[in-house]
Specification:
Blueprint: H1 4-28, H2 39-49, E1 53-55, H3 56-65, E2 85-87, E3 92-95, H4 97-110, H5 122-133, H6 137-143
Length: about 140
């Protein structure tokens, strides 16, 4: 059972919540929300652009250029789950198929490719044949409906 005291308390809490929401809206109004950068996608993308194989030093340079610490590269080589990069004997690092797919996905997401819906004028295609048949005896039945 709701008592008058409980109802007033609930109404007061709702009012407080509405005020906090208005304050939050005011803070966000006009503020641009920056998208989180995908540094890993950028690194993988550049490795893919360079032929999917780079030296370890090149990988370090690529990571640094994209703001990624050298220590963060270990996630690309993890043995559990999906591995994006594989170390070859010697000094080379190559993209795995999963890493290449991630690089392509990042490239597609980072480009603002707008696809236009093809405009097909079906009426214009059918217009000629329909116009030729307009006055036929078969269609004259429908003229009286």
């Amino acid at each position: 059972m709701v008592t008058a005291v409980n109802a007033r308390s609930a109404i007061r809490l709702i009012g407080d919540a509405e005020e906090l929401l208005q304050q939050a809206k005011a803070l966000l109004n006009g503020a641009e929300v920056a998208e989180e950068e995908d540094m890993g996608g950028k690194v993988l993308g550049e490795v893919l652009d360079r032929g999917a194989s780079v030296s370890k030093n090149e990988l370090y340079e690529i990571a640094e250029r994209h703001g990624m610490d050298r220590r963060g590269l270990g996630g690309f080589f993890r043995q559990s789950g999906k591995t994006s990069l594989y170390v070859l004997p010697g000094d080379r690092v190559v993209l795995t198929p999963y890493g290449a797919a991630q690089a392509r996905r990042h490239a597609e997401l980072s480009r603002n490719i707008m696809y236009e819906e093809p405009k097909i004028a079906y009426a214009k295609i059918a217009e000629k044949s329909f116009a030729q048949d307009w006055d036929s005896e078969e269609d004259s039945v429908y003229d009286e409906l």
